[in-house]
Amino acid sequence: MSEILDKLGECVEAGKVNAKAPFPPHLKGQPGADELCREALAAGVPPEDILNKALIPAMGRIGEKFSRGDAFVPEMLLAARAMSAAMVHMRPFFTSGQVKRKGIVVIGTVTGDLHDIGKNLVAMMIEGAGFEVVDLGVDVKIEKLLAALDKHPGAILGLSALLTTTMANMEKMVASVKQRHPDKVILIGGAPVTREFCEKIGASHYASDPQGAVEYLAKLVA
Amino acid sequence: MQRQGTDSAHADNVFHCRLDFADSKPTFADIEKVLGYPPGRATAPVLAASQELLRGTERIWSIEGGYVVYSSISLDNGHHSLDVQGLSFDLGQVVAGQLTGAEAIAVFVCTAGRGVEEFSRRQMSSGDPVTGFIADALGSLVVENAMDRVQALLAAAMEVRGLRITERYSPGYCGWRVEEQKQLFRLLPPDFCGVRLTDSALMQPLKSVSGIIGLGRSVTRRPYTCRLCDLEDCLYRRLKSETGAADGAPTI
């Protein structure tokens, strides 16, 4: 059992989605995350072990490499893609409740801002860390955001802004959320956003990159 | 490249051109750098996806650029202000200082078009985030390269008039507030190069740049002063500063 989980973890870390994927060269022609996850489930490996002993640790390793400067955003995306291929087979166990996620994160780009690349990267990495992500997209209006938070009352909120002008909208949105959900954990990020701005608007945490967001969330639920 | 130069009632002259992807295509080394890799460190999948994008995406680009020259301006270095056509800009200390000696300005816009952002979004949502991410970075590089071409054409046109040009400066960078982009767009013909501004001062298409260039007999094209800027995470700062050509040079 351990061997297949090790191989699955290796494939996720290396971003090898399936047997057809040509990268990395030393795994060429071998099964990838897709096939190995299916095989593991067929062999009776408990799905929570697949998630907690293979998939999440693999994403954690690539995240640590990123923090050390040994991996870059594309490597994290490749890993997240391989993880997604494995997660397709895990979905029924989440639906049935047999395997539980670490929490729910509602995420979106603030009103007036159409940038989505950074937000998408964070969403993928958070999902890879074992959270369910409710992605509201870009130019999210406050009504839509509050409705999502009402629907997922225990969710953590993630907001992104890429312009100084839309940072003002972030401030307004955080204030509206705090009014309705005073204890809401709010994670913010985006190129012009700073730790000082985070403190000023009363958000809970500023993450400068996707790994920073993952590390903060991991501490929250530890 | 197709060029158009026209006179306009509200400015000395207007120049517009369309550029081919081949004219603005970055090198793989530039892509590697903008993605954050040290030279030669990009992995095989990144190299493969980048090469595919450089080879097979001609149809997603719709690259346009241009400028409008205003000869009647008032630059106050003490107050860091620029008055043009009844509009007053607060450029901030850095940009105002870099424009010292300007007798005229060129207001510019350049875009890579909407196709690249749609392509990137499609790749992201269809399960190929790496290609989507690289395409997004490629869009940023293409619009900067295209603007380099437009700026070179401006320099040549001004040289004929005995004028030199400064570097280019954009709202949102070098201490110039992004909100002033709204005023800046009032100095451009409507939908110039197909670029529009939202209420949040966001340019659409997203892969667009706008700003001003100082013109004058005594202006100097000085290196950017990224050391004085608050935007420490600026991708363009990293890209330009590592080339050794300048001390960082964002215009996006």
Tell me roughly what share of residues is in helical segments of chain B.
25-40%
Query: How is the main sheet of chain B built?
Result: 6 strands, antiparallel
> How many separate helices of chain B?
8
What share of residues are in beta strands of chain A? Answer: 5-15%
What CATH first level of the largest domain in chain A would be assigned?
Alpha Beta
Distance between the termini of chain A: 26 Å
Indicate the CATH architecture of the largest domain in chain A.
3-Layer(aba) Sandwich
Structure description:
The complex is a heterodimer of chains A (222) and B (252). Chain A is of the alpha/beta class. Chain A is built from nine helices and five strands, in the order H-H-H-H-E-H-E-H-E-H-E-H-E-H. Helices cover 57% and strands 9% of the residues of chain A. In chain A, strands 2-1-3-4-5 form a five-stranded parallel sheet, with helices on both faces. In chain A, helix 1 (2-14) packs across helix 4 (73-96), helix 2 (33-42) runs parallel beside helix 4 (73-96) and helix 4 (73-96) packs across helix 5. The longest helix of chain A has 24 residues, at 73-96. Chain A is globular and about 50 Å long. The relative contact order of chain A is 0.12. With 252 residues, chain B is of the alpha+beta class. Chain B has one domain: NADH Oxidase. In chain B, strands 1-2-3-7-11-8 form a six-stranded antiparallel sheet. The model of chain B is unreliable at 6-10 and 242-252 (pLDDT under 50). Chains A and B meet through helix 4, helix 5 and helix 7 of A and helix 3, helix 5 and helix 6 of B.
